[in-house]
Design brief:
about 210 residues; alpha+beta; Glutaredoxin; Glutathione S-transferase Yfyf (Class Pi), Chain A, domain 2; 2 domains; four-stranded mixed β-sheet; 9 helices
Length: about 210
């Protein structure tokens, strides 16, 4: 059985749990990370030298990095409906997965660390205001994309790209800051919430 190492409250672990739910893939999960088993132990570092969750073990195959994991699971376990084999359709999905990791993720870092994690290193008011503006700018990019598709981030059908993006949207609405009116993002949030797997692992109230 698939083994998932990582605490369920982690946004990156939740990507993997949500993907497993969409694929009806059974797994066993172990709590690792802050507040649980340390990722700095030799045992864990042998699996992931970066000391980060999640890590999966699929028989004798070990993999870390959440977006790589969800791509692997969809490719290995009949996830064509989530991650199409057609090169152009897959590239469109990959484009938005990578955008979430490289752009959207970075944009919310300062504001989230300040407001939710209460990090002493993230309490500069000017940096906070700049971070909020940058986060809003990226959410506006997403809103325009969702206006174009009228449904999901890479097109009319739910895809693997909606898993990291959908979790970022949950983080947007759960972080206590002023949110500009983004009607397509709000509609998308409610659309995703019709999916049992998202209600379980995406909109569970955990930042």
């Amino acid at each position: 059985m698939l083994r998932i190492l990582g605490k369920a409250s982690s946004i990156n672990v939740r990507k993997v749990l949500w993907t497993c739910a969409e694929l009806n893939l059974p797994f066993e999960r172990e709590d690792w990370g802050s507040g649980f088993q340390s990722t700095l132990t030799p045992e864990f570092l042998a699996l992931n030298p970066c000391a980060m969750v999640p890590v999966i073990q699929d028989d004798d195959f070990t993999l870390w990095e959440s977006n790589s994991i969800i791509r692997y699971l969809a490719s290995r376990y009949d996830g064509e409906q989530l991650y199409p084999s057609d090169a152009r359709a897959r590239a469109r999905v990959d484009q938005w997965i990578d955008w979430q990791a490289s752009e959207l993720n970075k944009s919310w870092s300062y504001a989230f660390m300040s407001l939710v994690r209460k990090s002493p290193a993230h309490q500069d008011s000017l940096a906070f205001d700049a971070g909020c503006r940058e986060w809003a700018r990226h959410m506006e990019i997403l809103d325009r994309q969702l206006q174009k598709t009228g449904a999901y981030v890479s097109g009319e059908q739910f895809s693997l790209a909606d898993i990291p993006i959908g979790l970022s949207v949950n983080r947007w609405f759960e972080t206590p800051l002023g949110h500009p009116h983004l009607p397509a993002v709000s509609a998308y949030y409610e659309r995703l919430s019709q999916r049992p797997a998202y209600r379980l692992h995406g909109r569970n109230g955990t930042p």
